[in-house]
Amino acid sequence: MSETEYQVSQKEAAEYLNVSTKTISRYRKKGLPYRMILNPVTGKQEVRFKSQDLERWHQGRELLSTYGQDGESLNRKGESLGTRAKGGTGGQRQVEQNSYLDELLEVYKEQVQLLREQLEDMRAQLARRDRQIEDLMRFMVGFQLEYKPSAPEDERQQDQLKGAVQELSAAPSKKVFRREELSQSVLRLRKKGKSYAEIARGLNQINAATLSGKDEWSPAEVQSLLPPLVEDEQGVIEL
What residue ranges do the domains of the chain occupy? Predict the structure, then answer.
């Protein structure tokens, strides 16, 4: 049974049956089929009815009203006619009563069938909800089993590796010179009166790579680039 068939609101049902909404609520308790439908606008569950169910309910009310009126009229006729019309009038009244009861029974059978269909729909909805909950539980359990946090030792190693990579990427690249180029530069600077310490500071400032692989130049390493004595055109100059 499709939910799209339940389109009549409780207020519209009350107007159709010419009763109040409170009476519609009592009819629901007495067996008037209905369904709770989610209103996409308000986001709330609202009572909805089918037009066919309201029509059948209205017919049942008319039958009950007709039966009450016919019963009273038949009783008055039976009392006025007395014993003269016992056989014919009594038989006709019995036939009318049986006909009405048959019609009323058919109406009740239809209402019972509608209630059974509604109950089956509710069971199907509950079954779908149970399956959704089971699928969600299986997903959560699988996620917990697959999640394996790394050990503290692994985390420390990863942090150390990240730090080393950052240091390498942040450190400026060293400028590499040949030994002959360095020796000539040191010789010119010494002739200009620069000391080994000053030359070492200058090489460190330009970020020149040392020959020994150390981070910085030292006066002793600068001195090792030159022989202890260097001859020029005027004679021997001690460096």
Answer: 3-141, 179-238
